[in-house]
UniProtKB/TrEMBL annotation:
<dbReference type="InterPro" id="IPR023170">
    <property type="entry name" value="HhH_base_excis_C"/>
</dbReference>
<keyword id="KW-0004">4Fe-4S</keyword>
<keyword id="KW-0408">Iron</keyword>
<keyword id="KW-0378">Hydrolase</keyword>
<keyword id="KW-0411">Iron-sulfur</keyword>
<dbReference type="GO" id="GO:0051539">
    <property type="term" value="F:4 iron, 4 sulfur cluster binding"/>
</dbReference>
<dbReference type="InterPro" id="IPR029119">
    <property type="entry name" value="MutY_C"/>
</dbReference>
<comment type="function">
    <text>Adenine glycosylase active on G-A mispairs. MutY also corrects error-prone DNA synthesis past GO lesions which are due to the oxidatively damaged form of guanine: 7,8-dihydro-8-oxoguanine (8-oxo-dGTP).</text>
</comment>
<dbReference type="InterPro" id="IPR003265">
    <property type="entry name" value="HhH-GPD_domain"/>
</dbReference>
<dbReference type="InterPro" id="IPR004035">
    <property type="entry name" value="Endouclease-III_FeS-bd_BS"/>
</dbReference>
<dbReference type="GO" id="GO:0035485">
    <property type="term" value="F:adenine/guanine mispair binding"/>
</dbReference>
<keyword id="KW-0326">Glycosidase</keyword>
<keyword id="KW-0234">DNA repair</keyword>
<dbReference type="Pfam" id="PF00633">
    <property type="entry name" value="HHH"/>
</dbReference>
<dbReference type="InterPro" id="IPR015797">
    <property type="entry name" value="NUDIX_hydrolase-like_dom_sf"/>
</dbReference>
<dbReference type="GO" id="GO:0046872">
    <property type="term" value="F:metal ion binding"/>
</dbReference>
<keyword id="KW-0227">DNA damage</keyword>
Length: 348
């Protein structure tokens, strides 16, 4: 049996029951693939069901406000995925009359869709033999063939894509692609892979040469940047607060946050209230207290946010226009969402 036949045979016996496996509708396949980037299936499944229930067609997603889409995406992270999803839904609805492009070359032109997602949609929905390469595929191929080229290098990306393309079963490319992804997720796992029950036991180079723990190889990660956030949770006498939308191209674009003072280190109360930003925001008397006694560390891919939430009570603020009772309507970063779950504002 060759590689693809063995893999597909394994898949037919071990595939996961997932809702997007029951359709070839490119809208649903697209949704699932975008959601599962950087996200485990167990976490992404509930979001997929929520999205397909609220937005059953691409027209429904296109008509939604971006704020609504971001609110539904809250907790999945990497919010540029949601913004791109919404942008592309509007393009497909308005420019293509709801019809998804049917070839890899056309699909990859859509915003937010890269080689992997375009390959998945083209193969699963339109039977185009173009191979997917994601983290699971890198792991399976690097171990099986004993390849130590770094998977996050330009050379590695090209090498693994070319190899995957030579292996794909052209008669059933969608099944092959789903098989190799499932194999990496279930069988050839990052840690403690099920080598004892693997159909490739006799031919896997990593197993024969004891390289399971060292493959795949990744180049050294980018240096992580530390940032220090001080959120000012305002509460006025008439039970209002301040939330503002984050602009620009940085983290959390389009999400809402409390006024933020960023410092170059962890600061105490006296340092906070003597800062120019605090004085400009609160010229009048306030009562301030630290909500979290221990600094919260929120880890993103290339930065760690050391965060403090300061409760600021003041009689009046011209900027405070949002009722506390309405605060849950706004899309916020998971860092702030977690704070809101714990904080119960008392009446002034």
């Amino acid at each position: 049996m060759n590689f693809s036949n063995t893999l597909i045979y394994w898949y037919l016996q071990n595939s996961r029951e997932l809702p997007w496996r029951k359709t070839k509708n490119p809208y649903y396949i697209w949704l699932s693939e975008i959601m599962l980037q950087q996200t485990r299936v167990a976490q992404g499944l509930s979001y997929y069901l929520k999205f397909t229930s609220t937005f059953p067609t691409v027209f429904d997603l296109a008509k939604a406000d971006e704020s609504t889409v971001l609110k539904m995406w809250q907790g999945l992270g990497y919010y540029s995925r949601a913004r791109n999803l919404h942008f592309t839904a509007k393009q497909i609805a308005n420019e293509f009359n709801g019809e998804f492009p049917s070839t890899f070359k056309e699909i990859i032109k859509l915003k937010g869709i890269g080689d992997y997602t375009a390959s998945a949609i083209a193969s699963i929905c339109f039977d185009e033999p173009t191979a997917v390469v994601d983290g699971n595929v890198y792991r399976v191929l690097s171990r099986y063939f004993g390849i130590d080229t770094p998977i996050n290098s330009s050379a590695g990306i090209k090498e693994f894509k070319k190899l995957a393309q030579t292996l794909i079963d052209e008669s059933q490319p969608g099944t092959f692609n789903q098989a190799i992804m499932d194999f990496g997720a279930i069988q050839c796992k990052p840690k403690k892979p099920l080598c004892m029950f693997c159909p490739f036991t006799d031919s896997c180079v990593a197993l024969q040469k004891n390289l399971i723990e060292t493959l795949p190889v990744k180049e050294k990660k980018i240096k992580v940047r530390n940032r220090y956030f001080n959120f000012l949770v305002i509460k006025t006498k008439d039970n209002k607060t301040i939330l503002s939308e984050r602009k620009g191209k940085g983290i959390w674009q389009g999400l809402y946050q409390f006024p933020l003072i960023e410092s170059d280190k962890n600061i105490n109360k006296n340092e906070l209230i003597s800062s120019d930003e605090f004085i400009a925001l609160f010229p009048d008397e306030t009562t301030i207290s630290l909500f979290n006694k221990k600094e919260i560390v929120h880890k993103l891919s290339h930065q760690h946010l050391y965060t403090q939430f300061w409760i600021v009570e003041t009689e009046y603020s011209s900027e405070a226009k949002i009722n506390w009772s309405d605060i849950e309507k706004y899309p916020v970063p998971v860092l702030i969402a977690n704070f809101l779950k714990e904080y119960q504002p008392k009446k002034y």
